[in-house]
Automatic annotation (TrEMBL):
Organism of origin: Fodinibacter luteus
KW Transcription (keyword) present: no
Keywords carried by this UniProt record: Antiport, Ion transport, Membrane, Transmembrane, Transmembrane helix, Transport
Residues spanning the membrane: 6-24, 31-49, 61-81, 102-122, 181-203, 210-229, 249-280, 300-322, 328-346, 366-384, 396-419
Protein name in UniProt: Cation:proton antiporter
Residue ranges constituting the Cation/H+ exchanger transmembrane domain according to the UniProt record: 15-421
Subcellular location: Cell membrane
Length: 437
């Protein structure tokens, strides 16, 4: 492709990203839908239609681009959440119960449901089936902003912020945490493909991949977040208090330090970034510096999401679906329409948010259960695992992941705006606008 055409396409795409939120605000169309469709159309243009995209050959590039995109989204999600999580407060832990239920019940059920469907009726080898379940189980912090909280709320009593929007809080907190918690099952698939019988690795896997790395990631992220918040808000020298001058690049510094430090000592970097963002957000909660940090992360996330979604659309019409068969279609349809909604709803049976509170009602449970958006994280997990072990079904996995993400973008994208708008009206809230990603 000529460089001039690349510039033209990128410039036009950036313009599209800038105007889409305003155009789509009142329509049942999400920006991801339009961006993926645009990428598909670009892929059909004569200058590029004969340039096939092989995800196996481009695996390394795909892994790193999606990795950075998810990291930025996790930082943004952590900074956007207003509800505090205090480690020594039972009430605080209870207030986060929607997240714990989605992580502890819905996510394992989803992994198991997808893996068993692929391995049993569809005849996929166990390692690939488990990897598929682990990759598709996490909801996505990148493509799900239409059903998530929009950003830090600074007005009013910080203790009461976002308490009335349990649906958006549940989906946002789930997206922030489950990307890191999917990793143990990705490693289980890698070990199953490369390390022999389960009995030879299950004990160290449980002790380190399932428990140890989670603890390390959370601790490192919390420590980095505390240090960054201390520097920004309470440094002894005024010149070091970045919050007073409104320098938002601290958010990017915190992201990189938290991720790098956690990965260096063996923890899960995704969890570390989210924990870091939550910790920074917990300090001086009413300070408008949180909004400045979130804004710069949001801008970067928009740009990265633009690249990823256009690339996904391009790939869909240039070879990504070449190995899709009825089994991949069955997995995608079952996940989006059956497995995730059932697992999500079951996880909230008997749910109470706080002592004496009613919790999520029937309709809200259905909304939270259904809007398990799949996206960029799934691509990253397949790329990571395929680079660490050999999966003979790798090309089929890529096609199935691509189809499932496209299906999720369309189904959830069409329904997100009207469903969330109706919930807002029923609860007396103003419409929460939509974002690009």
């Amino acid at each position: 492709m000529k460089p001039e055409l690349v510039y033209l396409l990128l410039g036009g795409s950036l313009l599209l990203a800038a105007v889409l939120p305003q155009i789509l605000h009142r329509w049942a169309l999400s920006a991801p839908m339009v961006l993926v469709a645009t990428g598909m159309l670009v892929g059909l243009l004569p200058p590029v239609s004969d340039v096939p995209l092989d995800p196996v050959a481009a695996r390394s590039v795909i892994e790193h681009v999606t990795e950075v995109t998810v990291l930025v989204a996790l930082m943004g999600v952590g900074l956007a959440l207003d509800r505090p999580l205090r480690w020594r407060s039972r009430e605080s832990w209870r207030a986060w119960s929607p997240a714990w239920r989605l992580l502890g019940i819905a996510m394992p059920l989803t992994i198991g449901g997808v893996a068993l469907l692929a391995w049993g009726p569809l005849g996929i080898a166990a390692p690939a089936a488990l990897l598929l379940g682990a990759a598709l189980a996490p909801t996505d912090p990148v493509l799900a902003s239409d059903v998530q909280v929009e950003g830090p709320t600074l007005e009013g009593d910080a203790e009461e912020i976002d308490e009335e929007d349990e649906v958006r809080f549940a989906l946002t907190s789930e997206a922030g945490l489950n990307d890191g918690l999917a990793f143990p099952f990705v490693y289980a698939a890698i070990f199953l493909a490369s390390a022999g019988p389960v009995s030879q690795w299950v004990v160290p896997w449980f002790a380190w991949e399932l428990v140890g790395k989670v603890v390390v990631g959370v601790l490192v992220g919390t420590a980095v977040g505390w240090a960054m918040a201390k520097l920004a808000f309470r440094a002894p020298a005024r010149s070091l208090r970045l919050a007073e001058v409104g320098e938002p690049l601290l958010a990017l510094a915190a992201l990189l330090v938290a991720y790098g430090a956690s990965e260096l000592v063996g923890g899960y970097g995704f969890l570390a970034v989210f924990a870091c963002a939550l910790t920074v957000r917990s300090v001086e909660r009413a300070h408008d510096y949180h909004r400045h940090m979130h804004d710069i992360i949001d801008r970067l996330e928009t740009l990265l999401t633009l690249v990823v979604l256009l690339g996904l659309g391009f790939a869909l019409t240039n070879g990504l679906l070449a190995h899709l068969d009825w089994r991949g279609v069955a997995v995608g349809l079952a996940l989006v329409l059956v497995i995730r909604p059932v697992a999500g709803y079951v996880s909230f049976l008997g749910h109470r948010t706080q002592v004496g509170a009613a919790g999520l009602d029937h309709r809200e449970r259905l909304v939270v259960a259904f809007f398990g958006v799949r996206g960029v994280g799934s691509v990253y997990y397949v790329a990571y695992a395929a680079g660490a072990a050999s999966f003979p079904e790798e090309r089929w996995l890529w096609s199935t992941i691509g189809f499932t993400i496209a299906l999720s973008v369309v189904v959830h994208g069409v329904l997100a705006t009207p469903v969330m708008r109706r919930l807002d009206r029923e609860h007396g809230r103003e419409d929460a606008g939509t974002a690009v990603a």
